[in-house]
Amino acid sequence: MRRRSASMGRLLVVLLSLVGWLHVGDAAAQTGFDCPAPPQPYGPAEAEAAMRVAQDRGYLWRIEKDGRVSWLYGTMHVGQREWIFPGPLTLRAMQSAERIALELDLLEPGTQQKMAAAIAIRPNAPPLPAALALRLKAQADAACVGKAVTAMRPEVLAMTLVALSGRSQGLDPAYGIDVMLAGFGRTVGKPVLSLETVEQQLNALLTDDPAEVQTLVTETLDSLENDEVQIVLARLAEAWSESRLDDVAQYAEWCECLKTPRERALFAKLVDGRNPGMAQAVAALHEGGKTVFAAVGALHMVGPKGLPALLSERGFKVERVTFAAVRGGA
Prior knowledge:
16 helices, 48% helix, globular
């Protein structure tokens, strides 16, 4: 298999580890393009029927300390429409916790405002070279995005186009699991908390170096134009749907995108580098006397530096919850 580009690996890490801007905003169909159907909301009767047959997906751990039980849940920030309903084991865990904790609470207005300001085009930023800007515009037009998306910093626009590239396979940021969890908490009156700040997430990702921006946009467009990213995204999504944690744990071995020191350093920064802070936040919430259902991107859950391992080191009893096989495939 041909080795995939650096930014393809980087952007798929983002899909499983960073959130906040992965939505289309005011996307609208563009004349001359075969645009994906917009996200379809559920009506009350359809939602009730979907809840009755919802299946457990993703990765769930029971964590216990000081006589209290909390939960860890590994998510995808893109998903299929039917995935937004939690299965019975996941739902019981959510209901039993006193608080919901996410990387970021995307439904909190202050979070949205900070994110929008941070990812907007910088007034004094050097423009992309003309040929590169035309390539980026062509991909944005083909993705049928609207003005709110094209007003993003070019590297963020490129990342967003990667997230949107899964729509041809039914994977849409609008059906991301984190947004569902934020809505669930509000619906049942549970506090919804953020484990990180907007600044922490974006500091791990954005750069003001014009050369680095050009490199990131170029490599991302290479992956989009060659359809490389869809292959890996499809495997990650299928693994999440079927709760195959081994596929996520072995991501570095099969993605062909973490071969160089630069790529591995970026992965360590985006994933392993953020895990101690999130583990500390989860532990502090639990040890403060209130149980928590803490949900973060699935890549944060694997290996000796993953959240389950770090919380075990902090004295938590950590047990993986096994889900039944998904009926009817992904």
